Amino acid sequence: MEHRNSTKVTEFVLLGLSQTQGVQLFLLGLFLLFYSLILPANVLIILTINGDPHLGSPMYFFLASLAFLDICYCSVTPPRMLADFFSCRKAISYGACMAQLFFLHFLGAAEMFLLIAMAFDRYMAICKPLHYATVVNRGVCWALVVASWIGGLIHSIIQFVFIAPLPFCGPNKLDNFFCDIPQVIKLACTDTYILEFIIFCTSGLATCICFLLLLISYGVLLVRLRASSPNGKSKVASTCVTHIMIVFVMFGPAIYLYCRPFRSFPMDKVVAVFHTVVFPLMNPMIYTLRNREILSAMKRLLGRSGLWKGK
C-alpha cells in the first residue's frame, strides 16, 4: 500500500452546492421554506396515525414508521448543509465525516428494508386476505420494523468496515455538500479498484436487486387485482400505485449514485439533493395526499386542537 505523502488528513473540505454567495442565499431560503412546511407535515402524519383508532391497520403502522425513518434520515446531512451556507470554509472533521457516512447508509438501507416489509404487507392483504389479520399482527409488524433497522445497521457496518481503514493523506476536498462513499473513496491514497467493486456489489447491486424485486412484486399484485372481485379493487390498486411511486422516488436516485463507476458526473449534486433532502420527506406526503382516510383523520386531529375549522 503506497501513500502519496506522510501527512494524515484530519478534516475534509466540502465544496458545497455552489461557490456563489447569491446562489447560496437562494438555496438557504428555499431549503428552510421546504423544511418549515414538510417536516411538520411528517410529524403530523405520525401523530395522526398513532392517535386515530381508525388507522390501526398494519399499512398505516408501516407508513408512520416510514415517516419517522425519513425524518431521521433527513437529520443526517441537511442540518450540516444549512449551517455551511453561513460558513466561508466548509470543513468537516474526519470523525464527523465517517459518522455522517455511517448513519446515511444505516438509515437509507433501513428504509429500503422497510419498503420490502410494506410490500409483504400488501401481498398478504391482497393474496391471503383470510390469513392477513392472523399473520400480519402487531407483533409481526414490530418485528419487521426492527428487522429493517437491524438490516440497515448490518449494511452500514459492512460499508464502514471497508471505508474506515483507508489511508487519507491529501488532497482533502470533497466535491459535495456531505460525506458519501463515492467522493470519499476517491481521496484515499491507495489503489481502491477492488474496494470499489466490493462496495458496488454490496450497495449498488443490492439496491438494484431490491428495486427490481419490489417492482415485480407490485406488478404481480396489480395483475392479481385485475382478476379479482371488483369490490374495493380501485382503492387497493391506488394503494399499490402509491407504493410503486415511493419505490421509484426512493430507489431512482440511489441507483444513479451507487450503480455506476465512482466518478464525477454533472448531475451528481442535483440528484444528491433530491436523494438526501427532498425525496425522503416527500415519501409519506405522496402517500398521504392520495389517501382520504389519513386526510380525514388529520382534519379531525387538527379540529380537536382548534387548528382546523373545516367541516
Automatic annotation (TrEMBL):
Keywords: Cell membrane, G-protein coupled receptor, Membrane, Olfaction, Receptor, Sensory transduction, Transducer, Transmembrane, Transmembrane helix
Sequence intervals crossing the membrane: 25-47, 59-78, 98-120, 140-164, 197-224, 236-258, 270-289
Domain of life: Eukaryota
Subcellular location: Cell membrane; Membrane
Residues annotated as domain G-protein coupled receptors family 1 profile: 41-287
GO cellular component: plasma membrane
Principal place of residence: membrane
SUPFAM superfamilies reported for this sequence: Family A G protein-coupled receptor-like
Membrane topology listed for this record: Multi-pass membrane protein
Keyword Membrane in annotation: yes
A molecular-function term among this protein's GO annotations: olfactory receptor activity
Keyword Ribonucleoprotein: no
Family: Belongs to the G-protein coupled receptor 1 family.
PANTHER family listed in its UniProt record: OLFACTORY RECEPTOR
Name under which the protein is recorded: Olfactory receptor
Organism of this sequence: Alligator sinensis
